[in-house]
Specification:
The chain is built from 4 helices and 9 strands. By secondary structure, the chain is of the alpha+beta class. The chain has one domain. It has a 5-stranded antiparallel sheet with strand order 5-6-4-8-7. The protein has a 4-stranded antiparallel sheet with strand order 1-2-3-9. A hairpin with a 2-residue loop joins strand 2 and strand 3. The protein starts with 34 loop residues before the first helix and ends with a strand. The structure holds zinc ion.
């Protein structure tokens, strides 16, 4: 993808469909009453609750929400895929950082479920729930990890949850998320 200019159609940046404000220099400042901005506040509160109930967890990966897809493109002035992932890191008491991961080139093969998240998340799950089956696992350049589980015959991949305890569940054909750049 070109990093140069040449994106047409957004002369004034991204426009919020709720409050009508436009991004300026990759910052979108919503109207204080904007529902989109309030939805992002709800996401932040949701992450806070998630970490409050998991005092040992320092990382959470989850699918991007509709409100974040509205918020985050303002960093890039472009649309963000709904198959993007948010990595939330606890960096201090009550302080968290959100990082955006977008679909990359590699895809989850047929017949396989991928769990995607921070290595410490896998460690916590194994501590609390026992060892996961032996799988293909790959450490990714981003510092996150994917573990691939072969689906038993007759098990439908679409029956799996979207995310589990801070890991995102990738179905066959889903792209492996890579850091937004
Ligand atoms: Zn708005």
């Amino acid at each position: 993808m070109s990093k140069k200019k040449g994106r047409s159609g957004h002369p004034g940046g991204i426009r919020c469909p709720d409050c009508g404000r436009r991004s300026v220099r990759q910052q979108l400042v919503h109207d204080p009453t904007c529902p989109a901005a309030q939805a992002v506040e709800a996401i932040v509160a949701g992450d806070a609750d998630w970490f409050a109930s998991r005092p040992d967890a320092e990382h959470r990966c989850r699918w991007i929400t509709a409100a974040e897809r509205m918020e985050m493109p303002t960093m890039a002035d472009r649309e963000i895929s709904e198959k993007s992932v948010i990595h939330v890191a606890r960096i201090g008491p009550g302080v968290r950082a959100r990082s955006l991961y977008v679909p990359g080139e590699d895809r989850i093969p047929a017949g396989v479920i991928g769990l995607f998240g921070h290595p410490s998340t896998f460690t916590l799950i194994e501590r609390d729930k026992g060892a996961l089956p032996r799988t293909r696992r790959a450490a990714l350049p981003s510092g996150l990890q994917v573990q691939m589980f072969t689906l038993p015959a007759g098990v439908n991949a679409s029956g799996f949850l979207a995310d589990v305890d801070g890991l995102v569940v990738l179905l066959p054909g889903d792209a492996l998320p890579v850091p937004f750049a």
